[in-house]
Amino acid sequence: MSGKETSLPARFADVAELEEFMTRPSAALVDDLARVDGDIMVLGVGGKMGPTLARMAKRAAPGKRVIGVARFSEPSLKATLEGQGVECIACDLLDRDAIGRLPNVADGVRNIVFMAGHKFGAADNASLTWMMNVGVPLLVAEAFREARIVTFSTACVYPFVPVDGPGADEQMPATPPSGDYANSCVGRERMFEFASRKYGTPGRLVRLSYAIDTRYGVLHDVATAVYGGVTLDLAMGHADVIWQGDANEQSLRLLAHCTAPTTPINITGPSHTSIRWLAEEFGRRFGRKPQFSGAEAPTAWLEDTTQSQRLFGKPSVPLDRMIDWVADWVSRGQPSLGKPTHFSTRDGKY
Questions:
Q1: β-pair partners for 154
Q2: 45, 50, 269 from 244: Cα distances, Å
Q3: pTM of this prediction exceeds 0.90
Q4: Hey, what CATH class is 11-211+243-269+302-315 in?
Q5: 33, 84, 104, 190 - which has most CB atoms within 10 Å?
Q6: Closest CA to 115 of 89, 133, 88, 91
Q7: Residue closest to 226 by CA, chosen among 153, 331, 74
Q8: Do residues 164 and 222 touch, judged by C-beta distance below 8 A?
Q9: What is the pLDDT of residues 36-71, one digit of tens each?
Q10: How confident is the model at residue 3 (pLDDT cuts 50, 70, 90)?
Q11: Phi and psi dihedrals of 162, rounded to 5?
């Protein structure tokens, strides 16, 4: 076991301890944000990753304003973020005029992290999905053309690739197999790319695959199923995962590694994970036998992370430690966000 691994906690007593660790910035992040001029604004801060990303940014760069923008339908989130030093602005990003009233380069905001989007329910409301994932990005790209923009995208923009191969790299054409969600995510990238080419806006497109928190994510979904005796569908038999703290850190560090025009980069763990193996690992920790249905397909949404590893090295939290953390969390009945990933979906309908 490496020195880095032995320095990781064995478990998290509660949410406060989890989030303190998850938002603890590395020296590399502190250095990269020190190289970046201007303040930081996170659009769509109210999602699963946004609050911890904003808190990490503020801890890494306490001298910068970090502004979180969302509808804040849950008032407690706004109060929590403000208590952590993050300024909050309530804004509906579907409103062009409201976007225009947000702080901009003239106000010192030179860095945008775009995290807004619509996934679950996409099959039932295709027009909203396309507006959130394509229309809003164009509005944002136009409004913040003079800033740097790091955009959260997804591995779903790729076609399925063989599970025994290296995964899709950034040169592979973005041609998802099906579904409004995946195809609208290609549209999101295209809008930021169009504006970047037109205005010279520097940026990066973060093709993220499954960030892991003990309260949600592929590991939480599999662990919960095994612990509860629920049958796991093996149709999507492999997934790529990364600790959410590592995903947030690498995404924030990209503000110092933008390109013009903007370019994609894969961010996830360094190896592909078998769902069957993962369930068996949880079963071993729980003393319970996993239940399976179906068979693994020979393809899945998997990524090659050579480029991000060249920039940042491997993620700081290895898979076995994530499994230990999630197993401990689930077995103690600790809080869940109640937001399943639906990782087994292959038809693109979310």
A1: 208
A2: 14, 10, 11
A3: yes
A4: alpha beta
A5: 33
A6: 133
A7: 331
A8: no
A9: 999 999 999 999 999 999 999 999 999 999 999 999
A10: very low
A11: -60, 140
